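Q&A FORM
Asked by: J.P.
Topic: structure of Precorrin-8X methylmutase

PROVIDED:
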Amino acid sequence: MSFIVKPSEIEKTSFEIITKELGNRTFPEGQSEVVKRVIHTTADFDYADNLYFSENVIENAKNAILNGATVITDTNMALSGINKKILAQFGGEVHCFMADEQVAREAKERGVTRAIVSMEHAAKLKEPLIFAIGNAPTALIHLYELIKQGDVNPALVVGVPVGFVNVVESKELFISSNIPHIIAKGRKGGSNVAAAIINAILYQLVTREGFEK
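REPLIED BY: S.T.
REPLY: Here is the structure written out as C-alpha cells.
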C-alpha cells in the first residue's frame, strides 16, 4: 500500500474527497471555499449546514483585508493558525490580547474575564478590524455590546466559540443582527475553525490578486 506524503497532495486529495462527499450541494460564491476548508480542518460535514453567512460578507471581508485589516482573535491557537504571511502581504496583522499583562491586571481588578477586556482593547485599534472568536462566548457577547454602543464597527465577525454555556446564545445575537458575520450555529466551533475561516478568505484573495501563498 502506498501513502500520499506530500503536503500539497494531501490537501488536494482531501478537498477532492470533500467535494465528492458533498455531492450535489452548492453554495454561493466565496462561501464554498470557507465551508470546505472548515470541513477539511475538522473532518465534520455538519459545517455544511452549520455555517451561517450574512449578506455579501465574503466580499466585504476581502475588501477589508485589501485595505490592511487587523485580525483579532481570542486564543493564541487561532493566532498561530491564521496565515500571517499572506495577511502581511496585504498590510494586515493578527493580534490576541488574552495573555497581555495589562489585560490580565485590568481583568483581575474589575473582576471580569480577560476576554471582555481583550475586546475593549481591540476596539481601540485602527479599523478595518476583523474579529475571529473561536473559544470565549463572553468575548462574542461583549463584542456585540461594544458594537451596539458604537465603540467599534467590524468589517467581519467570525463567531464560532465552542461549548455549552452561553455559546448558542452569543451566536444568536449576531445571526439576528445586521453586523457582518460568519457564525457556526449551535455548540460546535473552536479556534481551529476560526482560523480556517480567515485562511479560506485569505486564500481566495491570493488566487485573485496573484500573491504568494
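FOLLOW-UP: The two ends are 32 Å apart (CA to CA).
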